[in-house]
Amino acid sequence: MKQLLTCLIFTSMFLFMACQQEELNSPAIDKKENTADFLINNNSTHDISITYVTSSKLGFKESEGFITISKQSSKKIFDVSFVSEFPYPSTALYSLSFYLSSSAGHSIITQNKPVVDEAWVVIDQALDSEGFGHTSYQLSYSDVKAD
C-alpha cells in the first residue's frame, strides 16, 4: 500500500511538472493594441484653456480634464490605448471646450460637442502590416477675426 501511495505521488508530481512545462512552451496570446495621442496647436495670440470630456463609446469611463496652452504653442491634452479598436478623435473624446485665459478668469470661445474627426489632422502614424500601432492627432486653434 505504501508503494502504491508513493507511486501515485510521483506520478502526480510528474504530470504536474509536465503541464507546467507545456504552459511555458505555449505561445502567449498577442492582443493587438492601438494607441493615440491628441494635441492642440494654439496658433492664436492668446493663451487658451481647454476642458475635455473623454468618450465612453469603447467601454471606458467618461472623465474630464483641463489644460492651459500658451499662445503659439502645441500641447498634448490626452492619450489613449484601445485593444483591437482604432482610436479616432470622435471615439476617444466626447467634447472639447475652448476658453480665453485672462487675469479676469476664463470666458468660453467655442465648444466642439460632439468631437468631429474631420477637424483633426494626423501628424504622425506608425502602424504595423495589420494596421495596429500609434497615431498622433492634432487640432489647430487660431484667432477668429471679425469682418
Secondary-structure map:
Blueprint (H helix, E strand, L loop, with lengths): L1 H24 L7 E10 L5 E7 L9 E6 L3 E11 L5 H4 E10 L2 E8 L8 E7 L5 E9 L6
Parallel strand pairs: 1-8
Antiparallel strand pairs: 1-4, 2-3, 2-5, 5-6, 7-8
CATH architecture: Sandwich
CATH class: Mainly Beta
Q: What is the mean pLDDT?
A: 80
Number-wise, the strands total 8
Largest sheet properties = 4 strands, mixed
Morphology: elongated
- Percent of sequence in beta strands: over 45%
Proportion of residues in helical segments = 10-25%
- At the fold tier of CATH, the topology name is Immunoglobulin-like
H-E string: HEEEEHEEEE
The strand order across the widest sheet is 4-1-8-7
Q: Give the helix/strand class.
A: alpha+beta
Q: Please indicate the count of domains.
A: 1
Low-confidence runs: none
The DSSP helix count reads 2
Amino- and carboxy-terminal Cα gap: 101 Å
Radius of gyration (Å):
26 Å
Describe the structure.
With 147 residues, the protein is an alpha+beta fold. The chain has one domain (33-141): Immunoglobulin-like (Sandwich), CATH 2.60.40. It is 19% helix and 46% strand. It starts with a helix and ends in a 6-residue tail after the last strand. The model has no long low-confidence stretch (mean pLDDT 80).
